[in-house]
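Subject: sequence -> structure tokens, single chain

Hey, anyone have a minute? Need the predicted structure for the following. Not urgent.
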Amino acid sequence: MQLVNEVIGKELTLFEKKFAESVKGSNPLLDRIMRFIIRRKGKQMRPMFVFLSAKIAHDINDATYRAASLIELLHTATLVHDDVVDNAMVRRNFFSINALWKNKIAVLVGDYLLSKGLLLSLEHNDQDILKITSRAVKEMSEGELLQMEKARKLDIKEDIYFEIIRAKTASLLSAACSAGAFSATGDTATAEQFRLFGEKVGIAFQIKDDLFDYGDANIGKPTGIDIKEKKMTLPLIYALNNANKETRRWIIYTVKNNNTDRKKVNDVIAYVKQSGGIEYATQKMEQYRADALAILHSYPESPARKAMEELVNYAINRKY
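Reply:
Had a minute. Here:
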């Protein structure tokens, strides 16, 4: 992402310093865990979306840095809590917080990060940006709970699937874009346009993630993991919708009862591929990408707009 680094590289470097300052702990254990979190940070795509949205809408200012920090604090908190819920021992090829310090400390660390985000906004009177991001956290929780509820019966239809991923995945990315635009302009209409843009990118991003479950590339997790966890993704939903009754019963029975049997899961994956589920999901992903870029192209051409397009394509074309 060369152009992204050229356009906002200095801002991202300064952001890293500001973020590290914002999570400093008040006791040795907390400070040690915060340093661990900073060392294992990911690509920081969401702060990139914040900065580029601000730059396209108007320009980056101090409120933009706070918006980026708030988004990253909330994102990190949800990941820490997710690892506890999923009993995950590894995150980004590092041990998770709960693996090293156990669940109780991990939950408290997640709570601490959430509180730091709230205080960062309230102490600078960024209530509007806090409202944008708080709505996203609410929707993420609702989306996760809806997915868990539907996993019991495996009765997810395509419209429910899109509602789940809009809430679970796209809401925080849309909040990043909306908060970035609002920090630069203070204009709710502009913030709403960027929210829609981010939502469409986020949905395309999640469909791409779903497709990895049916691929052959080494992406750091085995294929079929979504089936093992009884997650109804778009390729599988398409296959079910286009199967006869007997095949449909076989798929649902396998996902419910044989989801840890590698051979039977592979049989389902093979059927999904044969049914056209991969092509259908890819087509939907490309449509959401196109819709997002149409919104982006309503703004004047600039290095920031080109960098944002590069970031969108990177997020959707990624290999892992």
